[in-house]
Amino acid sequence: MKRIQYDRYGGPEEMYMGELTLPALGPNDVRVVVRAAAVNPFDWKLRRGAMKLFMNRSFPKGMGTDFAGIVEAVGRDVTNVLVGDEILGTVDFKKSGAFAEKVVLEASLVAKKPAQLTFSEAACLPIPAMTAWAAIVDRARVKPGMSIFVNGCLGAVGSSAVQLAIAHEARVAGTSSPASMRKASAAGVHPIFAYSDKNAYLNGEKFDAVFDTLGTLSVSDGLSMLKPDGVFVDINPTPRRLVRGMLSRRYKLAFATMGIKHLSAIAELANKDALKLAVGIEAPFWDAVGVLARAEVRPTVSGKIVLTMSG
């Protein structure tokens, strides 16, 4: 079986198309024929070694986390999906390898694909939507009438956050590039500010929650934008911020892993047309190494990059 992998941590030059024998199917596992796999910055951060303290030391390691495909086999204890089901899912980052022809993973990491989504559209959802769920639903505790500010409201995570907030009847303000402000407004974001207009949004209205998807707000800036009982949610941890997030009532960190248990709920929202991410480029799996290298060095595509497998 072919997959994109690497033999040591490093830059794009470490990636190559390699061979892998899939592991045996465990009782709680599924084997999936991958039809599409979406690219996340997290994928190359893993290859660079950003999480190596949490990884085992064996190589080669596979690349890719988010995917959509068709269930080929299920373990004896699996009950949430059947052979032949179209699904979306995310691979445990310690066992990355979704940029592959097939993948074996725990059934708890997959959900049935909404019928109206293509495989490429479905593959775009897991990590961005799980991260946004952790921030907006778990940390901010969104409810009708809340005001939420999303810094970077048109990226994959930001767009997911906006849609989740609106689905829960919250009001959303946020930032985007000047060229994208009309698009943000059409998505339901109001008011919308340019990234550079920091004085305007730091000194404007106060919010029930502020969600920084970009890492460009300091903790003090985020807290200054809140109502007295508001919460600043961050997805850009540093050791100091990790400690502060554990001790503070008003500053919280959110991670995609917190949203894994909500993957079926995310798929259900997508099934109701309340959540969808734009596909920017679809590229054949066989061109993956070059496509990934270019995306890492010059990330200029609007929408998600998706690797597609023939099927």
Q: Mind explaining what this structure looks like?
A:
There is one protein chain. The protein has 311 residues and is an alpha/beta fold. The protein folds into two domains: 154 residues, Alpha-Beta Complex (Quinone Oxidoreductase, Chain A, domain 1); 133 residues, Rossmann fold, CATH 3.40.50. Helix content is 27%, strand content 29%. The chain has ten helices and 16 strands. Strand 13, helix 8 and strand 14 form a beta-alpha-beta unit. The longest helix is centred in the middle third of the chain and has 14 residues. The chain is globular and about 55 Å long. The mean pLDDT is 93.
What brief labels describe this structure?
311 residues, alpha/beta, Quinone Oxidoreductase, Chain A, domain 1, Rossmann fold, 7-stranded mixed sheet, 6-stranded parallel sheet, 16 strands
Rounded mean pLDDT is 93
The radius of gyration over CA amounts to: 19 Å
CATH C-level label of the largest domain: Alpha Beta
CATH fold-level assignment of the largest domain? Quinone Oxidoreductase, Chain A, domain 1
Kindly estimate the percentage of residues that lie in beta strands according to DSSP.
Answer: 25-35%
**Total individual domains:** 2
Class from secondary-structure proportions: alpha/beta
Helicity range: 25-40%
- Helix count, DSSP H or I runs of 4 or more residues: 10
Largest sheet: 7 strands, mixed
Order of helices and strands: EEEHEEEEEHHEHEHEHEHEHEHEHE
Total strands: the figure is 16
- Are there runs of 5+ residues with pLDDT below 50, and where? none
- Determine the N-to-C terminus distance: 15 Å
CATH architecture of the largest domain: Alpha-Beta Complex
CATH superfamily of the largest domain: Medium-chain alcohol dehydrogenases, catalytic domain
Described by its quaternary structure, the protein is single chain
